[in-house]
Amino acid sequence: MAANRITSLFRIKYPIIQGGMVWCSGWRLASAVSNAGGLGLIGAGSMHPETLREHIGKCKNATDKPFGVNIPLMYPEIEKIIEIVIDEKVPIVFTSAGNPKTWTAKLKSEGIIVAHVVSSSLFARKCAEAGVDAVVAEGFEAGGHNGREETTTMTLVPQVRSAVDLPLIAAGGIGSGAAMAAAFALGAEGVQVGTRFALTVESSASEAFKQKCISISEGDTMLALKKIAPTRLIRNEFYEKVKEMEDRGASKEELQTLLGHGRAKKGIFEGDLDEGELEIGQIASSIRQIVPAAQVVSEMIEDFNRTVERLKNLSF
Prior knowledge:
Layout: H1 5-10, E1 16-18, H2 27-35, E2 40-43, H3 49-62, E3 67-72, H4 78-87, E4 92-96, H5 104-109, E5 113-118, H6 121-130, E6 134-138, E7 144-145, H7 153-163, E8 168-171, H8 177-185, E9 190-193, H9 195-198, H10 207-213, E10 221-224, E11 231-234, H11 237-247, H12 252-259, H13 263-269, H14 293-311
Parallel strand pairs: 1-9, 2-3, 3-4, 4-5, 5-6, 6-8, 8-9
Antiparallel strand pairs: 7-11, 10-11
Helix pairs in contact: 2-3, 3-4, 6-7, 8-14
């Protein structure tokens, strides 16, 4: 595969970025993806500051390839997290869920490459103004927290491409090389893959959660908690409680009380399939096996190349 702006920016072989997912993306997954030629990300969103420092150290020992840290900007101890990534000389940071202007200049002044996740062209323009190095356009097919606009990846990517000239990464519903090729056809130069990597051997998610995810069918995930932060969830007992409350017009405060603390940890990391918050993307319904992360990377690249070859002489 020829080099492009994403592979050159991050100094990686393949333009495949592993999403920095809470309770899934520890050092084992990040280093495995980086060693396979992609870009692994440690998910800081579910880590205490010193836990993050530990994962960064272990990732450095497990790979000599570039890796990064994903930082949700709404994180309550954001200053400590920023201090750690600077102190540990992490080369790449992906930020999300907040204003990119807040920390981009500081991170870049320390020589860190910064990418930011957006759900609209408006926020993509704000990223360009903030000076980020790349932008991730994430459609609402994605797992976890989503944009309030509910714009699909196929709609979002070409609109962001038209809005900004930044290196562009597509995310949301991408779990195959064919989907990667489709994203490239729309103007993307790389893909960020979450769900497919969440369901790998190296993911730190519980085995019960992984097995549940590979058993679901189309329509088994829904967008919920829109009054707090839109989140894609597997239908389970917790989701049904959320739906019942949302259907009767429950307030944001009532929903926050139900959500409580540690609900995602309970579901994803501890494997409580009834009362846990089971965040996963729509693409999970097409995944049926838990395989090593390196196999995901190699199969995506092989499928991408086959797809491009098949379409090469297609014309009407």
